[in-house]
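Design request, tokens follow.
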């Protein structure tokens, strides 16, 4: 069994003090206080000279747990050990980061571009300008976390590459990396990413800024031909369920690893070194933002439907068609998440609702796609002669919304 104690850190007459009280006074009635010494250690202050302080007078409040069978002497030894630990000192005296790798730099740059939490940059020249500015200001000292749980601890360069953006993580020239780097990165002369960026989105959690990158579709065959045209021997590994392909490009004195974000989803993010979050948290953020993107799209359809005249059938059918595309987009995302092999890179545009429905229904899970929904989506997407009222399309919207909410629940489990 354990009991919780509260550590209140405050200053008195220029010295730092740590006061220990119980979370529940009846558990431990004595107030313990410690004063920091010049050597950096905390010394116990006898209770007859303790100044009782309130929570609002404390600079910091922490909680620790101790065994309930400890007497006062054992408690003092335990707390003294805790107060002198590296972990506690790291909390009280947090590491100071250089500005180049700080959270403040990301915040300052976000403010300079007048973007807020949840806002995006979509213009390609502005995206490049922001990312280039970020890499120059940080000297490339950032963390790049991928949905696949791949991680790189710096960006050496960002530059246009044909119609793509090239993000270089490691560049050893025409020489292999040092032995320790070779054990980590293999015998590559360079490692980089190619992507076509649709938009970047800013997520702020407390003072920590994440820059999420949403990519566009890149056809595999087209890119492979471009590499071969440049004289490279090309081998390809596909990781569709992790939103990327990995090309190995070889010439006489080169061996490059090229990571291609080839699907139209948020697939990686950039964050500062200070306060960096673990990879599993980054993956959760990327997953969440892909679902939010779907929510935003379907909510926009409802807004446009509400604003549409009930006799404007072109607009009514246009929103119905958009709903069909959102359904297909989300079903593909769900299949990728469930690691269903659809050869999605080769036939993304050919994977319609009719092909996706059996793949999802065969999982025999909580997601069941009714044929009725497919039929309505098809009617709204073609000149079939059928007429749908505004109310009928809104009803279809409600059915789509419920199905997508079920998918979101399934993914978030």
């Amino acid at each position: 069994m354990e009991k919780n104690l509260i550590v209140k850190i405050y200053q008195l007459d220029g010295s730092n003090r740590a006061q220990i009280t119980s979370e529940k006074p009846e558990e431990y009635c004595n107030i313990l206080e410690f004063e920091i010494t010049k050597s950096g250690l905390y010394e116990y202050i006898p209770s007859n000279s303790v100044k009782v302080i309130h929570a609002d007078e404390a600079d910091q409040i922490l909680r620790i747990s101790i065994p309930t069978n400890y007497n006062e002497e054992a408690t003092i030894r335990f707390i003294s050990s805790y107060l002198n630990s590296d972990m506690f000192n790291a909390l009280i005296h947090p590491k100071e980061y250089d500005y180049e790798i700080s959270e403040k730099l990301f915040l300052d740059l976000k403010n300079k571009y007048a973007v807020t939490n949840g806002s995006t940059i979509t213009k390609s020249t502005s995206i490049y300008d922001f990312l280039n500015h970020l890499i120059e200001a940080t000297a490339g000292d950032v963390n790049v976390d991928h949905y696949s749980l791949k991680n790189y601890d710096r960006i050496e360069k960002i530059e246009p590459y044909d119609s793509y953006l090239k993000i270089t993580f490691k560049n050893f020239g025409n020489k292999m990396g040092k032995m320790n780097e070779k054990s980590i990165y293999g015998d590559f002369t360079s490692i980089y990413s190619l992507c076509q960026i649709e938009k970047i989105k800013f997520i702020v959690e407390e003072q920590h800024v994440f820059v999420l990158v949403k990519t566009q579709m890149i056809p595999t065959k087209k890119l492979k031909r471009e590499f071969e045209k440049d004289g490279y021997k090309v081998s390809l590994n596909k990781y569709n369920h992790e939103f990327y392909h990995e090309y190995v490009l070889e010439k006489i004195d080169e061996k490059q690893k090229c990571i291609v974000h080839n699907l139209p989803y948020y697939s990686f993010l950039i964050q500062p070194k200070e306060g960096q979050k673990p990879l599993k948290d980054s993956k959760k953020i990327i997953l969440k933002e892909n679902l939010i993107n779907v929510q935003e799209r379907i909510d926009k359809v409802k807004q446009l439907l509400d604003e549409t005249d009930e006799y404007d059938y072109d607009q009514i059918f246009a929103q119905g068609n958009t709903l069909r595309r959102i359904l297909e987009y989300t079903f593909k995302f769900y299949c990728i998440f469930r690691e269903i092999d659809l050869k999605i890179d080769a036939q993304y545009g050919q994977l319609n609702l009719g092909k996706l429905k059996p793949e999802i229904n065969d999982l025999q899970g909580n997601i069941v796609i009714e044929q009725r929904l497919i039929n309505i989506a098809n009617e709204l997407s073609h000149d079939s002669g059928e007429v749908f009222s505004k109310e009928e399309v809104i009803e279809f919207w409600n059915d789509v919304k419920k199905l997508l909410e079920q998918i979101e629940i399934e993914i978030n489990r």
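Comment from the thread starter after seeing the answer: thanks! Residues 230 and 251 are 10 Å apart (CA to CA).
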